[in-house]
Amino acid sequence: MKYFEDIAVGERTAVGSHTFRADEIKAFAANFDPQPFHLDESAAESSHFGALCASGWHTAVVWMRLMVNYRRRMAEAARTRGEPVAAMGPALGFRELKWLKPVYVGDTIDYASEVIAARVSESRPEVGLLSILSTGSNQHGESVISFISTTFVERRPMKP
Amino acid sequence: MAKLHWEDVQPGTVSVYGPRLVTREEIIAFASEFDPQPMHLDETAASATMLGGLAASGWHSCCLLMRIIADGFVNKTHSMGAPGIDEVRWRKPLRPNTRVRVRTTVLETRAPRSRPEFGFVKCRFELLDEHDTVLTTLTCPLMIARRERGVRA
């Protein structure tokens, strides 16, 4: 990953995509969000969603997994080039998370993330803080999720 | 017990749900599947990070909070889900073998004019450890079906 100084506001990353299967939707919901419309097809059909759909938390954590995979690929490529890898994280939290459309069985969600603000941390001047807008769209091009997270990233070490 | 409608939820109500013991094994299992970063997977690697030791993924904290409020509150209402989350702050790391609870404060209830079938219940949820230290705060509006369509309580 790049250091804080090498990251430009407006940089956009194609994070990856994921197709949600019925079994994983139900398994996630059974663990973390056991509401009938995330657990059972017939209960979901009689709900306002009309069909089994993923927990919004599930849609969000799949972004995290794909983002970690993306950062690993970038770190690996940097090491291959003999370049240092800046530490990223932890995140402080997120805001304005919107679940815009349900994610139904078989939907493929394509995630992207964009740096929308960057500043040096006041409490920890050795690290930068990035605001990142992440979005997910389904195979019809409809946005299903968006949120803004804030995370630490290492600054470029001073030259001796 | 009959499930609650939007009209049954009163602003200002404070409730505590849980407890639930969060184990090292489940922290690592969640991270392995959804957030495989060193600080959530391995003590040695975690001690070299800003978190200073193994801690649950922030997303895991959110998911545990969701499960606790689903069992304690949401599934006892005519829930219609939530349109999103206003804000989440990961204030303190969630460490292995912490017994967590969720303090829920109903901030406001509001019925949209355009959608007579439900109302919003805006809540602040705080994930607490056994010393009542706030680890994570989450603010969001829940959607709960109305008993009487379009009639204000």
Structural description of this entry:
The complex is a heterodimer of chains A (160) and B (153). Chain A is built from four helices and five strands, in the order E-H-H-H-H-E-E-E-E. Chain A is of the alpha+beta class. Chain A has a single domain, classed as Roll (Thiol Ester Dehydrase, Chain A). A five-stranded antiparallel β-sheet of chain A has the order 1-3-4-5-2, with helices on one face. The model of chain A has no long low-confidence stretch (mean pLDDT 95). By secondary structure, chain B is α+β, with helices and mostly antiparallel strands. Chain B contains three helices and five strands, in the order βαααββββ. In chain B, strand 4 and strand 5 form a beta hairpin. Chains A and B meet through helix 4 and strand 2 of A and helix 3 and strand 2 of B.
Give the key terms.
heterodimer; A: 160 residues; alpha+beta; Thiol Ester Dehydrase, Chain A; 4 helices; B: 153 residues; five-stranded antiparallel beta sheet; 5 strands
Topology of helices and strands:
The complex is a heterodimer of chains A (160) and B (153).
Chain A: E1 12-19, H1 22-32, H2 36-39, H3 41-45, H4 56-80, E2 88-99, E3 108-120, E4 127-137, E5 143-154
Antiparallel strand pairs in A: 1-3, 2-5, 3-4, 4-5
Chain B: E1 14-22, H1 24-34, H2 43-47, H3 58-72, E2 84-90, E3 98-110, E4 118-128, E5 134-145
Antiparallel strand pairs in B: 1-3, 2-5, 3-4, 4-5
Entry summary:
Chain A has helices at 22-32, 36-39, 41-45, 56-80; strands at residues 12-19, 88-99, 108-120, 127-137, 143-154.
**Mean pLDDT metric of chain A:** 95
Question: Runs of chain A with pLDDT <50, length 5+?
Answer: none
Oligomer: heterodimer
What global shape of chain B is seen?
Answer: elongated
What composes the largest sheet of chain B? 5 strands, antiparallel
Q: How many beta strands in the DSSP annotation of chain B?
A: 5
Which superfamily, in CATH terms, is the homologous superfamily of the domain at 6-22 and 58-145 in chain B? Hotdog Thioesterase
**What is the count of DSSP helices of chain A, taking H or I runs of 4+ residues?**
4
CATH class of chain A: Alpha Beta
Strand coverage percent of chain B: 25-35%
By CATH, the architecture of chain A is named: Roll
